[in-house]
TrEMBL record:
Organism: Nonomuraea wenchangensis
InterPro entries, sorted: OxRdtase_Mopterin-bd_dom, OxRdtase_Mopterin-bd_sf
Coiled coil, from the record: none
Oxidoreductase molybdopterin-binding domain mapped to chain residues: 22-170
Domain of life: Bacteria
Gene3D superfamilies associated with the record: Oxidoreductase, molybdopterin-binding domain
Name under which the protein is recorded: DMSO/TMAO reductase YedYZ, molybdopterin-dependent catalytic subunit
Length: 198
């Protein structure tokens, strides 16, 4: 028998819910930029304009997506830039252990480097062969399908290389620092030693 694709406690809803905290930002290509800062290898901040970011090579990944509120969206076809492509253009210091993903309006989520660099993680610009809609994160969202979806930050504007872990928006508000849906790592009180920042 095929193994279940649904992590414990999740269900497949009718329709495809959209959720986020706060407003949907307006995309202005002339002023939009994408920064890579923090512990870069060179010590310098890297900054991509929209036309630079848009012309980075893209790959396609099909993945399910699990929100901690228990709905899952199955078989999404994402297309966009692999983290490895971005790291080649703006390399991290060898000591980087975590990455903070920053969005419009200060929303953020922290990732372990291993989750950021995982083969299924993607800076998605298209969903199901169409550009992302505004409410799904246009022009760029990160997709980290193997973690709860609050880590899949929409409207990404920057990544920050970290030499030490730090909590993001929901991780500071009682949600699990790692967020593996297969282990139901929903809340911070479930964290084991070593799973949270020092
Ligand atoms: N910038 C930003 N990204 C975000 C959020 C948010 O509030 N702001 N919410 C997260 C949560 S909790 C979920 S479940 C997913 C929802 O993605 P969807 O709207 O494409 O279903 O976006 C994530 N990314
Ligand atoms: Mo969510």
């Amino acid at each position: 028998m095929e193994e279940s694709r649904l992590p414990p406690g999740q269900y497949v809803p009718r329709g495809r819910p959209v959720i986020h905290y706060g407003r949907v930002p307006r995309f202005k290509p002339e002023t939009w930029d994408f920064k890579v800062f923090g512990a870069t290898a060179s010590g310098e901040e890297h900054c991509f304009t929209w036309s630079e970011f848009e012309s980075l090579p893209r790959v396609t990944r099909v993945a399910d997506f699990h929100c901690v509120t228990k709905f899952s969206l199955m078989a999404n076809e994402w297309r966009g830039v692999a983290p490895a492509t971005l790291m080649a253009a703006a390399p991290p210091d060898p000591g980087v252990s975590h990455v903070m993903i920053w969005a419009e309006y200060g929303y953020s989520a922290n990732l372990r480097m291993s989750d950021f660099a995982a083969p299924e993680t993607l800076f998605a610009m298209e969903l199901d062969e169409k550009p992302l809609s505004a409410e799904r994160g246009h022009p760029v969202r990160i997709v980290v399908p193997h973690l709860y979806a609050w880590k899949s930050v929409k409207w990404v504007r920057a990544i920050e290389y970290l030499l030490e872990d730090r909590r993001g928006f929901w991780e500071e508000r009682g949600y699990h620092n790692v967020a593996d849906p297969w282990r139901e790592q929903r809340y911070s009180y479930q964290e084991e030693p070593g799973e949270g920042p020092p």
